[in-house]
C-alpha cells in the first residue's frame, strides 16, 4: 500500500499529462507491489523554498508497508530521483525523499487493518 507524495512549487500546468498514472505504475514496479494498492498525490504550486532558493524544488515522501529500509532505500532514492528529474524537470539536488516504513497495524483498507 505505497503512498507516493510530491509537494512542489512547480505550476500545475507544468505537471505532464498522465503523470499520476505513470508515477503509480513506476512506484508499483519499483517496490514490487500491486498497482491496485498504490496511491499517488501531487501537490503543485506550493509556497516553498529549498536551500535558500525558490527555484523549482520538491518535498517527496514514500510510505510503504515493507519494501523500504537500509538495504533498499539507496536503490529507491536513485530511481525516484531519476523519475522526478526526468518527468518534472526538478534537479535531484532540489528535493529530499523521506522514506517511511509503515507498521501493518497502522494501515487499513476496506475497514480492516493489514496487521
TrEMBL record:
It catalyses: L-dopachrome = 5,6-dihydroxyindole-2-carboxylate; 3-phenylpyruvate = enol-phenylpyruvate. SUPFAM superfamilies: Tautomerase/MIF (SSF55331). It comes from the Eukaryota. Keywords: Cytokine, Isomerase, Secreted. This is L-dopachrome isomerase. It is found in: Secreted. PANTHER family: D-DOPACHROME DECARBOXYLASE (PTHR11954), MACROPHAGE MIGRATION INHIBITORY FACTOR (PTHR11954:SF6). GO terms for molecular function: cytokine activity; dopachrome isomerase activity; phenylpyruvate tautomerase activity. Belongs to the MIF family. One of its GO terms (cellular component) is extracellular space.
Amino acid at each position: 500500500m505505497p503512498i507516493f507524495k510530491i509537494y512542489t512549487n512547480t505550476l500545475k500546468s507544468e505537471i505532464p499529462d498522465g503523470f499520476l498514472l505513470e508515477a503509480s505504475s513506476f512506484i508499483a514496479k519499483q517496490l514490487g507491489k500491486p498497482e491496485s494498492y498504490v496511491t499517488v498525490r501531487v501537490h503543485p504550486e506550493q509556497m516553498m523554498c529549498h536551500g535558500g532558493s525558490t527555484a523549482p524544488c520538491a518535498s517527496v515522501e514514500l510510505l510503504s508497508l515493507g519494501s523500504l529500509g537500509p538495504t533498499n532505500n539507496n536503490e529507491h532514492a536513485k530511481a525516484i530521483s531519476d523519475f522526478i528529474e526526468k518527468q518534472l524537470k526538478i534537479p535531484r539536488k532540489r528535493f529530499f525523499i523521506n522514506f517511511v516504513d509503515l507498521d501493518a497495524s497502522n494501515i487499513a483498507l476496506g475497514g480492516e487493518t493489514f496487521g
